[in-house]
Design a protein that fits this description.
The complex is a heterodimer of chains A (107) and B (121).
Chain A lengths: L3 E4 L2 E4 L5 E7 L7 E6 L6 E5 L3 E2 L7 E6 L2 E6 L9 E6 L6 E2 L3 E5 L1
Parallel strand pairs in A: 2-11
Antiparallel strand pairs in A: 1-3, 3-8, 4-5, 4-9, 5-6, 7-8, 9-10, 9-11
Chain B lengths: L2 E5 L2 E3 L5 E8 L8 E6 L5 E7 L6 E3 L7 E6 L4 E6 L8 E11 L2 E7 L3 E5 L2
The chains are: A mainly beta (107), B mainly beta (121).
Amino acid sequence: DIQMTQSPSSLSASVGDRVTITCRASQSLGSYLNWYQQKPGKAPKLLIYAASSLQSGVPSRFSGSGSGTDFTLTIGSLLPEDFATYYCQQGYSTPRTFGQGTKVEIK
Amino acid sequence: EVQLVESGGGLVQPGRSLRLSCAASGFTFNSCEMNWVRQAPGKGLEWVSYISSTGSTVYYADSVKGRFTISRDNTKNSLYLQMDSLRAEDTAIYYCAREITVAGSDGFDFWGQGTMVTVSS
C-alpha cells in the first residue's frame, strides 16, 4: 500500500496569511494526487485533483503543485472560512490512501 | 443537483451485522463508480470499499476484507455496505462517495453527509 505523510499535522495562522501544506508519498504517484478540505461535522470536499487542477467552484486562492512523491497545497491568502482540516489522497492505486490530515487553526 | 444520502447507521453489538444504504440522485448513477470511506471519531479518513459502475468489480481495504460486502442496485440508484462480524474498531462515520477519474487521478468528487456506526456492548 502507498503511504501518505502530511506535514505539519497542525498549524496556526492568521487571516491573510499564505499557508503551505506538504504531502509525501511512499512511492511515485506521477501527478495522481488529490486534496480535500473538511470542516467540523461536514463531509470532505474535493479541492484539487491531479496535483494541480482546481475543482469546479473552488476559489483560486487554493493551488496545488508537485509530482512524483512530493506535493504541496497552498492557500494564497487565508480567509476565515478556510480554517479546516486538509487531506491529501493518492489516486494512483487501490487501496486509495489518505494522509493523516493537517488542521489549520486560527492564531 | 448531485445528492448522496446515507442511512442505516446506529448502535450495534460486537459480532453483529449492519447494512448501510446510500441513495443517489441528480446524476446518472449507473455510469458512476462508487466508494465507501469512513472516519473514526477524531481521526482521519480511511477508504473502505469500491464498486464499479456495473457492480462487476469490487475492492476492499484489508481491515474489512471478508467481513464487509459492497453492492449496488442501479434500478434503485442505491449503494449498499453489508457489514458483518463488526468490531469496536469499525466505529466511525461512514460516507458514500462518488468516484471521479480526471487526468488519470482517481478521487471522490461528491460525498454524502455520512451515517454513524457505533460498535459497542
